[in-house]
TrEMBL record:
One of its GO terms (cellular component) is ATP-binding cassette (ABC) transporter complex, substrate-binding subunit-containing. Residues 3-245 form the ABC transporter domain. This is ABC transporter, ATP-binding protein. The keyword Transferase does not apply. Keywords: ATP-binding, Nucleotide-binding, Transport. One of its GO terms (molecular function) is ATP binding. Pfam families: ABC_tran (PF00005).
Length: 371
């Protein structure tokens, strides 16, 4: 089912002793989620992700704007009538009930036309248990399961009512690193099989990029960019998005554009056609550096970290805003650690230029300086 958020705003009265005004948790948010897709809602703590999710499921009413499920305006529909399945970070299972009873629980409260027979409830519970691969654990209590298994039970419970959309709020946060990876692949598989339109909230950019068909990056209640993960990574609309996506993070330098050339300090790093002279931030992705004896950008070499297939050359440059510059380079490239300096060419497609004031991306056409 397609889901549309139209100019959604949510304001809360400010909390605390000195509170006077209002907090805008979500500001004029417009997103169209195509039918059957998994979208990742991504942003730092406090950016409004949970508020957006609570507006979608009906736990909160928007101050302004509308929500549609398909063609139906659900803005004023109570939560229990929206047909939404929810999965939370803390599983929220009933500890005294078995897995089977936990999964069946939401079906037992159905009334009127929706009421199901006992056999039908059991049949549905078994069907979703098989889907999330916990059908052999049905008689256990949650305390006898691993974190990953508990989260599967929570997913089964959210799916058993055959929701129109599925909402997941940081569902992997309580799992250790290995289980996180496994469970996120599981969620992807389950979502593909069921084709339920799913919104997945996380502050972890890598998690969002790996699992989502589309990501929505938010900051301070405002949507910054919507797109396929790779597109957003390759063409961030502003410095915030560029910095938020990618590990190690993008290296940000203070720079200038003068006469069609991007300067970092005294180094002329790239030809940039079609840009007026101005002060900028130049962001260079870690994979955007190429070691070269005549490289345009000179940095102080701090050391080399071995990563296996790649190495990370760690250096500094006075114009760089990051504590150190991390450049990821193939392990086969030899680095002369004796000289104290290192020189790089930069890959134009890995360089993003932002206006120093507005921090918006400045498009440019280029060829590498010195070529
Ligand atoms: N009930 C409320 N009353 C007042 N302010 C609120 C309320 N709920 C959220 N806020 C504020 O709205 C903003 C967005 O909060 P929200 O919980 O949606 O962010 P989040 O991105 O989900 O953060 P986190 O990742 O830490 O959960 C924050 O500034 C928060 O303090």
């Amino acid at each position: 089912m397609k889901v549309v958020l139209e100019n959604l705003t949510k304001k809360f009265p400010e909390r605390g002793r000195k509170a006077r005004g209002e907090v805008t948790a979500v500001s004029d948010m417009s997103v169209e989620i195509p039918d059957g897709k998994l979208i990742g809602l991504l942003g730092p703590s406090g950016c409004g992700k949970s508020t957006a999710l609570n507006l979608l499921c009906g736990l909160l009413k928007p101050t302004d704007g509308r929500i549609f499920f398909g063609e139906e305006d659900v803005t004023n529909l109570p939560a229990e009538k929206r047909g939404v399945g929810m999965v939370f970070q803390n599983y929220a299972l009933y500890p005294h009930l078995t897995v089977r009873q936990n999964i069946v629980f939401p079906l037992e409260n159905l009334r009127g036309k929706e009421k199901l027979s006992k056999e039908e409830m059991q049949r549905r519970a078994m069907e979703v248990a098989k889907l999330v691969q916990i059908d052999e654990l049905m008689e256990r209590k949650p305390g006898e399961l691993s974190g990953g298994q508990q989260q599967r039970v929570a997913i089964a419970r959210a799916l058993v009512k055959m929701p129109r959309i599925l909402l997941m709020d940081e569902p992997l946060s309580n799992l250790d690193a290995r289980l996180r990876l496994q469970t996120r692949e599981e969620i992807r598989r389950i979502q593909r099989e069921t084709k339920i339109t799913t919104v997945f909230v996380t502050h972890d950019q890598e998690e969002a990029m790996s699992i989502s068909d589309m990501i929505v990056v938010m900051n301070r209640g405002v949507v910054q960019q919507i797109g396929k993960p790779q597109e957003v990574y390759d063409r961030p609309v502003n410095l915030f998005v560029a910095k938020f996506l990618g590990t190690p993070p993008i290296n940000v330098f203070r720079g200038q554009i003068r006469q069609g050339m991007l300067y970092i300090g005294k180094d002329a790093v790239l030809r940039v056609q079609g840009c007026a002279d101005r002060e900028v931030f130049a962001g260079i992705r870690p994979e955007g550096f190429v070691l070269h004896p005549q490289g345009a950008l000179t940095c102080h070499l701090n050391g080399v970290e071995v990563l296996g297939r790649d190495i990370s050359v760690v250096s500094t440059n006075e114009a760089c805003e990051n504590t150190v510059i991390r450049s990821i380079i193939s392990a086969e490239s030899g680095v002369d650690t004796g000289s104290g300096t290192v020189r790089f060419h930069v890959k134009p497609e890995k360089v993003h230029i932002f206006d120093r004031e507005t921090q918006e991306r400045i498009p440019f056409e280029t060829e590498r300086a010195g070529e």
